[in-house]
Known about the structure:
The complex is a heterodimer. Chain A is mainly α. In chain A, about 70% of the residues lie in helices and about 0% in strands. Chain A is globular. The model of chain A is unreliable at about 1-10 (pLDDT under 50). Chain B folds into two domains: about 1-75 and about 160-270, Rossmann fold; about 85-155, no CATH class. Chain B has ten helices and twelve strands. Chain B has helices at about 40-50, 70-75, 90-100, 110-125, 140-155, 170-185, 195-205, 220-225, 225-235, 255-270; strands at about 1-10, 15-25, 30-35, 55-60, 65, 75-80, 160, 190-195, 205-210, 215-220, 240, 250-255. The mean pLDDT of chain B is about 90. Classes of the chains: A mainly alpha, B alpha/beta.
Amino acid sequence: MTRSPSLPLPGRPWALLALAGLAAVSLAAGLFFGPMGLTPAEVWRALLAGLGLGPVPVEASAITVVVHIRLARLCLAFLVGSGLAVSGVVFQGLLRNPLAEPFTLGVAGGAAFGAAGAIALGLTGSIGPAGLGVLPLAALTGALLALGAVLALSRAAGGFGRETLVLAGIVVATFLSACISLVKALSEESVASIVFWIMGSFQGRGFAHVLLYLPYAALGGLLIAINARELDLLALGEDQAGQLGVNVGRARLALIVGASLLAGAAVAVSGVIGFVGLVVPHALRRLLGAAHPTLLAASALLGGAVLVWSDVAARTIPPGGTELPVGVVTALVGGPVFCLMLRRGRRGEP
Amino acid sequence: MIRLDGVHAGYGPAEVLRGIDLTFASGEMVGLLGPNGSGKTTLVKVMSGALSPSAGRVELEGRPLAHFSPRQRARRLAVVPQRFEASAELTAGELVLHGRYPYLSFFGAYACTDHEAAQKAMKATATAPFAHRPLTALSGGEVKRVLVARALAQATPALILDEAVSELDLARSVEICELLACLNSGGRLVIMALHDVNLAALFCRRLVFIKNGRVAVDGPTAEVFTATILSDIYDTDIIVTRHPVLDVPQAHLLPRAARARARTACRSSLG
């Protein structure tokens, strides 16, 4: 063997390029799907006009649909998908558990409870543009509290093993979902807005939501990016990471906060969307190996693309202009994959 | 190089180490022996900074260990862990490269020198052929050698092994020990916690026996490897003979039933 032992797997740069291509194609293709029935040429003209690039006279409604509805929604779906997948990678590495992700860890449920509480208490106005800024903060608080509860519960039950952690996540998520029902029951006038918002969906979301999500995503992404190598070592266990020179306390805190920022803010703008953070990292780890810098970048690209297509499916599958919550689509695909992973774990494979 | 002064340590209310005084100089090859639960692993954790002592001092190169940043510490001290679990996709080469983490620049990319150091370490441990294989596809002995390679890539003057050979067969154990002896002859301090007293006698010039969280015996192998001391440490009957070929002592167990049989045989032959 004359190859360098430390070269990355040969396919990695190409795989990343291919994923970037897929992401770009998904974003572009997403523009052409929708209940309005615009032809591709109309979409293209409206896009150019909307971006100020084409002086072509187009109907104002087409511009609104293509740019302010479809494009905004695509951007949001892509960013949320990226955030969920990246936060899944971080939780899986940190807890050394391939089943960990915002949804199974109860982080998404905590964020939903935090946001529902904020809505019920009237902190958000009636989710008007002004009160919108409160939602991510409330969701983030809920996310961190839920994560703390899950980790404490899991540790008390004997560690962060595969089943223990997921079980603790389910217990906390179930409890929180009961709490959300309670909040709904107690605050009748905001029921509609809570219900509308909690089912994971991109319906009615616009650039305001993109702007709302971006700062949190950027901060979370940055925290994770500068600790990507540390995540590699933390995945070997905290003792070993420390013995190899990682400042364990600092790196772990930065990663947990980063992943919770991504997941919490994602829930705040789109509601609860499960399994993206589980399936995407799982598939990519098999394809690209365990090096986290590559895995994180690839997950951001594929997670975004997957959620864009899930949203397209949510918009186009039901006949007659109605729409499925996108969380339903991801759960329909993600649930069976989760079962497969659980089975594989039972057979003793990591 | 490493000095422990009245070290107490444990987990929560359970105290495992109850006053440890030890000094290790560079160039030594030391065997850390003692029964299960005597505190060997805890001692390794304290020496490597993974566990802070509840009382006493740990010094590295004359400075308190706690004053080193994790990176500074990892440039001086490498640890080969007892147990190892990795995600299924991690390759041997990647794991060895992790040994270069303490030398990583701010931007988080491993430099040419890091790749070279990793390559050299893999050659020295004969692990280069499976650099691209996932760790889960390697045998226990191969994984141990990869872990030693990682410690080697860390380029530290001191190396601590926590039961590095406990799960290995005879040939694999000797292989690892020979590798360590070779590293030691280059001037490295090697401290190895292990269960096989005969292996320790073959390779270590100094033995430290830990029992009930204290240093029970500490001295040159030739002086402390005796039937009395071994029997006392392990609470069982052990006899010591010379190795038939080498000038080192070797221990043999003498179980109770066998002892009784030996006595009967002796009596009947006399009667």
